[in-house]
Amino acid sequence: DSGVTQTPKHLITATGQRVTLRCSPRSGDLSVYWYQQSLDQGLQFLIQYYNGEERAKGNILERFSAQQFPDLHSELNLSSLELGDSALYFCASSVMMEGARNTEAFFGQGTRLTVV
Amino acid sequence: DAKTTQPNSMESNEEEPVHLPCNHSTISGTDYIHWYRQLPSQGPEYVIHGLTSNVNNRMASLAIAEDRKSSTLILHRATLRDAAVYYCIPGDDYGGSQGNLIFGKGTKLSVKP
To answer: I want to staple B88 with a disulfide (CB 3.0 to 4.6 A). Which of A104, B16, B22, B82 is the partner?
Structure first.
């Protein structure tokens, strides 16, 4: 158990809809990262939040957005869903404090999104 | 970002050592080499990371070439539970950036009983 909790585990929805994926990081971890894993693209970094603020952006579509709340949990919002958005979405967390080195990222079990 | 080259797949027998190679010839001088693995139906899991010296932990050893253009992850005695996709990822070790990982295709390790 990595200590990172993602809900829901599975989600089936129709094209055009909007969904919210939730992530609770390890206790005290300030950084949260979102990844998408599809069969053809592999694991792709989407976005990072650090202590409530956006820190880095990867290959995140404009239809997708995220936020990190004061209690450090994070949500990934996916809207106007398309068939190609079907994928596993992973959340990871790391870092107790700025400047910390030699730490690692801890990943959750993922949310499997199926768009039909 | 440094490009990596790893074999698509490797096979090992249970309880034998496994050497998983990775080429990262464009790695920057300050990038660490991280290894993660992903077991079937699970999220990625940290294995080990290092900068220049060889590193050991309870899971594996990491041997880094002197010119840092390649590294080898060593599993000393493979178990069935080690069957996974192993990713070699050059990247920053600075606090707050450990999770900005650029995953390649990795090496799928199969372990035979």
So the answer is: B22
